[in-house]
Give the backbone structure.
Amino acid sequence: MSDKAILQYQDKTFEFPVIKGSENELAIDIKTLRAQSGMITIDPGYKNTGSCESAITFLDGEKGILRYRGYSIEDLAEKASFIEVVYLLIFGELPTKVQLEDFQKDIVAESHVDEEMKKILDGFPKSAHPMGVLASLTSALISFNPNSVNVSSDKEMYAAIVRIVAKFPVLVAWTMRKKKGLPLDYGDDSLSYVENIHKMMFKKPSQEYTKNKVIIDALDKLLILHADHEQNCSTSTVRIVGSSHAGLFASLSAGISALWGPLHGGANQAVLEMLEAIEADGGDTKKYMAKAKDKNDPFRLMGFGHRVYKNFDPRAKIIKKAADEVLNNLGIDDPILAIAKGLEKEALEDQYFVDRKLYPNVDFYSGIIYRALGIPTEMFTVMFALGRLPGWIAQWKEMRENNEPIGRPRQVYVGENFRDFIPVENR
Ligand code: CMC
């Protein structure tokens, strides 16, 4: 096979190297395209554009494969803890016992969020959407940790990473506690990372916190499944914001905002609201299937379809099984689960969905588990952000370490040609 791609335009030909990834993915390297030809490419939604070479996550949308640093998502979801996956994604290898202990010690040492931050949270109305609050708090954290803005050594990079891994769960917990009218609290350094998150979110002032293995295992699994997904919308946002050297926390805050949208992470909230609406409407799934297929109706079957997965989303398979297990173990009989399963069955047999290769994605069943764990619907995307944090950090770190240039796409201008200015009285 040729290792060059040839572009012919009018009477000229231009040659470009073809590069191959470690899983044999091929890409035409067009870095010299504009210099050679004066032309650019146009690719709205970047459906055919690779923005970087990355060694973090591999996914094959046709085969339904997802691996972090070479490890399959199935193995990690089954055997690893979330904090091990955090380390793996950010530093490239699974930690040894000692490395993990040291990492956890460093996190514990940074788990305090400045009391003044509570005043910022106070300023938000209770009705504020938790994603907006979380993005703002993450951004506000910069002012309290100015050393984390610009990192110029490995040591500073590590310190900034540990700081946000330690403090982000506090922000997540405060965001939820504010919503629920609970007093803001700190964690318990004697607990594991995920247990501590759970305690910080749910501990009532008048009750002792009791650990529940089913809940902690479910949370661990959900967070692992969301931990990275290569160059998706929010991750690309983190990388592009970071490419201006804006700093880790600012880049993460932008990523949170990108994740909020219902076509991305916001889909988990939208799925549950859709399932509740179907239930309230008598459970008529066929009616909603018809709406989803009607091109004059803006309704989409939320939690279905994916830009990259055109076979199945391996995360959805794991989550569906987990939803069954968690609800069983907690003794919850949720009619919403039956509606979700019914919708999935119908969609998988429907020609519209089959033709367009639309399968349930990670967001289709995750909300059912969050709901079973007592997490309010508006917090679902915040939970996604908590899971995605290590992926965003790993991608930002890789971008900085590779000295990637500032992200700055071009455009094809289709507006007015030059025209003379006309003073307002003559218009
Ligand atoms: N319901 C009904 N039709 C759909 C759906 C859906 N959920 N998703 C895609 N289609 C149709 C779409 O109308 C189009 O049809 P046609 O070819 O006749 O015009 C075709 O399928 C291709 O869709 P697209 O919008 O061009 O595909 P995309 O790759 O640009 O979008 C997507 C991917 C995830 C944004 C889209 O499938 C969608 O809106 N899904 C619902 C929202 C959702 O669940 N998002 C979570 C994604 S996974 C987690 C994450 O990223 O955070």
